Amino acid sequence: xxxxxxxxxxxxxxxxxxxxxxxxNAAELEQFRIRFLGxxxxxxxxxxxFKAVSPEEKRTLGKVLNQxxxxxxxxxxxxxxxxxxxxxxxxxxxxxxxLPGEGFEIGxxxxxxxxxxxxxxxxxxxxxxVAEGPEIEDDWHNFSALNFPEEHPARDMQDTFFIKKGGxxxxxxxxxxxxxxxxxxxxxxxxxxxxLMPGRVYRNEAISARAHCFFHQVEGLYVDEKVSFADxxxxxxxxVQELYGEGTKVRFRPSYFPFTEPSAEMDISCSICxxxxxxxxxxxxxxxxxxxxxxxxxxxxxxxxxSKKYSGFAFGMGIERIANLKFEIKDLRxxxxxxxRFLKQYQSATI
Length: 351
Ligand code: DAH
Prior knowledge:
Number of domains: 2
Strand content: 15-25%
Strand order of the largest sheet: 1-5-6-10-9-8-7
CATH superfamily of the largest domain: Bira Bifunctional Protein, Domain 2
Bound molecules: 3,4-dihydroxyphenylalanine
Order of helices and strands: HHHHHEEHEEHEEHEEEHEHH
Radius of gyration: 40 Å
Helix content: 25-40%
Number of helices: 11
């Protein structure tokens, strides 16, 4: 009876101690383990004394004793896990968290994406939105609606990749220019239209430093009442001042495109040598950057737009060409080879 009471008191006291115990220190926890759960610890002692308890008392006290032991073990286990988590899973492994980390590489924008974005931003300020169309086109959108008559030699201006349809050389092709998107846009609604249409285009050309079988263009279209050639000139003049800097000169040379009348090609004073003459401008001081003109009334009519009421201008430029003049990239093939040493050189001011 005496032992029973004594053990009962001890257990109550130790239970309080165990419940109150807390540490995040591994050495302190080890002290706890030795004190309660060690081979010469308190629990071992109590179990030894328990042997002297009378058999009737054993039944009730045994239960209490077991619960007490489980309490001490559970406490030890919980604290041990918390400490192990806090110290990382590094103890006992050869993982060294103090080693410097591996560099995290941040990608850069592709030079063509940088230039495309810059072009779009400039025209955004003039209220141009952005539109896109499919790369696989039919004859109507790529040629016929744009006033390229059937069998007309103008179609040979652009060497086309035809896609066979029904085993025949059919009327489906990879678009040769983004002008096809103009047609899609005008067919889908009524003026005013003020949009930029960037995209990839394809031509059947041998790949070299100066030509590739695919490249990128940005098309521009502005159709409304009373749009004039003066609007075209002023818009493009503003564009190049923004893109290449104040003081960039422009000149328009008469040209021919089936879908514009009159048509022109626009040159700018060479952005590399500032007009003094260099390799890029072949000594002339001028470089051509785009084709443009007033949308041919036939094209407006083909797209369901009243050419008596509306007029418009259009232009188209190659993004690679604009990028060349900005970054002096002499070999077109670099744009599509995905060599990170090349790509990493070009950083966008705006990410
Ligand atoms: N589509 C022409 C080309 O790929 C470029 C072009 C010229 C587009 C004049 C136009 C334009 O919108 O008015 O060569």
